[in-house]
Amino acid sequence: MDTIEVSNLNRQFLFRQSHVGQSKAKVARDAVLRFRSNISITPYHVNVKDSRFNVEFFKEFDVVLNGLDNLDARRHVNRLCLAADVPLVESGTTGFLGQVTVHLKGKTECYECQPKPAPKTYPVCTITSTPSKFVHCVVWAKDLLFAKLFGDKNQENDLNVRSSDAANSLEHSEDVFECRKDEDIEQYGRRIYDHVFGHNIKMALSNEETWKNLNKPRPIYSKDVLPEKLTKENGDMEKGCTTDDISAMASLGLKNPQDLWSLAENSRVFLEALRLFFLKRVKEIGNLTFDKDDQLAVEFVTAAANIRASSFGIPSHSLFEAKGIAGNIVHAVATTNAVIAGLIVIEAIKVLIKDSNNYRMTYCLEHPSKKLLLMPVEPYEPNKSCYVCSETPLSLEVNIHSSKLRDFVEKIVKAKLGMNFPLIMQGASILYEVGEDLEEDMVAIYAANLEKALSELPSPVTSGTVLTVEDLQQEFSCSINIKHREEFDEEKEPDGMLLSGWVEAPVDKDNNKPIRNSESTSNALPAEEILDGEKDVEIQEIPEGTETVTGKKRKLSEVSEGTSTNHSGLSDENRSHNQLEKLDVDDEDDELIISDDWESLTKKKRL
Amino acid sequence: MDGEELTEQETALYDRQIRVWGADAQRRLSKSHILVYGMKGTVAEFCKNIVLAGVGSVTLVDDRVVAEEALSANFLILPDKNQYQGKTLAEVCCDSLKEFNHMVHVSVEKGDISTFGVEFFEKFDTVVISCCSLAKKKLINQKCRKLSKRVAFYTVDCRGSCGEIFVDLQDYKYSKKKLEETIECQLEYPSFEEAISVPWRALPRRVSKLYFAMRVIELFEDVEDRNPGETSIADLPGILKLRKELCETNSLSESQVPDALLERLLIGTREFPPVCAIIGGILGQEVIKAISGKGDPLKNFFFFDAMDGKGLIEDISEPNTGSQAALINDDM
């Protein structure tokens, strides 16, 4: 579904400048046909999750090669390949790192047998009240302030949540963000500035408890940073507004996106960007979502994040850096992608010629490990506890009286289990389903069910109930044993539900805080969701989510040399790859891949 | 300072890679000049990579006329006889490469590279050669080393599903960040001739067999006065004989240069496209690292064999060259 962007051209070499804006699938196809005209290539400029790509569709293929850029799409394709029993070659790259993995149903792990780190989320209070890192400021600027000012006004927004006087400030806050009749854009801008960087901080400071062990932020007011009216300083107000490239930086003569701006410069950018939005793009206001390719939006978010950072004593960042954070940009180069592409083809050929003894996972490292830059590893056997390919039941602890079906659907079924079109049943009763051909009265019943507590559903859920959850498109089904629990820790279990048997990725060491899904605070989708997976020639790893291999749980096989001549004195049987177990080979000729390296490997891969 | 900064066009195009190696490194790349000799599939991949990366210029040397077999692994040559008929490999590749990045100057140099004088090589920062006889490799390497300016020298060759890269950065100093500190590093590289002169018995026990196999075939071509890559399975008896001699001279067991491996290298004279991509990718990254001064360059051989899937680095140099010590086992 992706279209070609300028920033793709440094590595996606089937595309040219003239193709910017066109469908990747179509242009790639045309480019390949130019040097191999005899291949049948069908492009689909569609989201890979589209319903036409069902199990029957997947069954038509001998092998599937993924080039997706988000976890969700990968999980989806994984399930379809399992259901269709089609081999899947997965891959990803981030900068100098990359890997290729092969997945065959029943023979090897599926893509979900090993936990994959979920996209990073932050506790709401960290974003709204107690940021300690620049990224917290970016999330605030993007998902709260930008969304509040330029996004859907009906959307819930936590921007003014933490005020001392809740009732009054809610009234007050409704007015704050609306432009008053008598004020010009600059006055409006300064008023917003003073409200979010001055007033809100001052209010937060009044709550002594919060700041007991933390550095206090300082309120910032525009008159202290920019004492004079901007119109005087800017001189030519129309500068930077000539082309469709509306930019505060251009207007202010700030040329280098890698520069660090002073507080005054950030403040000017903030006000100028806001002014330009209202002056030149007023029609879009109320509908805008943050887009990393929207220069003005990036400028605004950078400036806002930097001012907030300044308030909290956090170092500021350049636009270039802030854009990368806000846009979840994955850094990428042509060379790593070329290496991984070559490795993918080698594995794909093995699959096609059914050379099943020689499938391998290959890791491309930035720093050699025991002389190896490209490290092949034998695939592991399927994880018997994998709820995707081994159909192990899961358990859910939940307060069945206070949690609604909606919470279950959103937080567990969709978010954690990765199902897009779920069907939820208890025994023979369907509690909820999604579909195009549902009767109206059923749709109404399901809608009503969503708002009911679990214990109050037409087929009540009690402790000991087993719910069956399915996604018909993925042909994936899963059982969940429900267990009632009264209390949940607000900090550690903010969802009010605890899913077990679902293997979760290890928590990042320097982010020991409890994770709460920040998506509840805004409608803004992370950028990578917008560029949703089309089968792309280009391979991207998910941002901050480089593959983690937990070597502790799995046994690692040694890699044996594939040469036919055998000088080790061992019979071929002993060295058979079919065993997929750790072989105790005492052979001087063989290189050993030692599993205790795995920890250092994973640490390196977490950038 | 405007001349020093990246243009808006560069910033937009190179955004994703600037996030990997930084704007300074990108600037250095844009000023670099690369000489490339021997336009086969792997080198085509390599050239594609450095052109995309935004080097200053790429000069191609290969006067061989395009023949149909070049199409099997060189994706820069489109299968249109009207386009390539009568042209040299360098010419056709040059035309294709230009399309990848208009900001890179790609050109052709004609003539026998062994006759080019030392002053010719001075124009470049990096020299990459492929499809070269042993004599030519040594010659060009020497010319690079004679210059007062440091010219990085690389050889790259792929046979069938195997590939080899050699790196000579002479005396290479660079800095890197370790935790919060910046540390200065220095590496001393041997020339190709020096490297391959290291007695085989002095090398670490588990040196890749591919190293030895490539040396045997290389020497065979040299002794038999063959063009590079012009060996076939029919030469196996001669190759095995040479192997025996070399192993005896070097007190190395012949099992370190397996029959099966030599056979594969002789049978697979054609390049295998995915291996071209892998080797071309690794080489591209090495050249970029050396030009930009960022990242630990590999020292000094890289081998890949699609059969076992390992991509490994071998340090083939005298133990006292001052960098990584060679591992010498007790039971040698």
Description:
Chain B: It comes from Durio zibethinus. The complex is a heterodimer of chains A (607) and B (332). Chain A is α+β, with helices and mostly antiparallel strands. Among the domains of chain A are: 46-119 and 331-377, Rossmann fold (3-Layer(aba) Sandwich); 124-161 and 176-228 and 245-327, Ubiquitin activating enzymes (Uba3). Chain: B, domain 2 (Arc Repressor Mutant, subunit A, Orthogonal Bundle), CATH 1.10.10.520; 394-500, Ubiquitin-like 2 activating enzyme e1b. Chain:  B, domain 3 (Structural Genomics Hypothetical 15.5 Kd Protein In mrcA-pckA Intergenic Region, Chain A, Roll), CATH 3.10.290. Chain A contains 18 helices and eleven strands. Chain A has a six-stranded mixed sheet with strand order 8-7-9-10-6-11. A five-stranded mixed sheet of chain A has the order 1-2-3-4-5, with helices on both faces. In chain A, helix 5 crosses helix 12, helix 11 (263-280) runs antiparallel to helix 12 (295-311) and helix 12 (295-311) packs across helix 13 (319-326). The longest helix of chain A has 21 residues, at 185-205. The model of chain A is unreliable at 161-168, 232-236 and 507-607 (pLDDT under 50). Chain B is an alpha/beta fold. Chain B has twelve helices and ten strands. The radius of gyration of chain B is 20 Å and the shape is globular. Chain B has two domains: 8-194 and 271-327, Rossmann fold; 198-267, no CATH class. An eight-stranded mixed sheet of chain B has the order 3-2-1-4-5-6-9-10, sandwiched between helices. A two-stranded antiparallel sheet of chain B has the order 7-8. Chain B has helices spanning 8-13, 15-30, 41-53, 81-84, 89-100, 118-121, 134-146, 192-197, 209-223, 236-249, 259-267, 273-292; strands at 33-37, 57-61, 105-108, 126-129, 152-159, 162-168, 171-178, 181-188, 301-305, 310-314. The interface between A and B is large, with 60 and 58 residues.
* Termini separation of chain A: 28 Å
- Give the low-confidence spans of chain A: 161-168, 232-236, 507-607
Q: Please report the distance between the alpha carbons of the first and last residues of chain B.
A: 59 Å
- Main β-sheet of chain A: number of strands, strand sense, barrel status? 6 strands, mixed
Strand order of the largest sheet of chain A: 8-7-9-10-6-11
Count of DSSP helices of chain A?
18
Run of helices and strands of chain B: HHEHEHHEHEHEEEEHHHHHEE
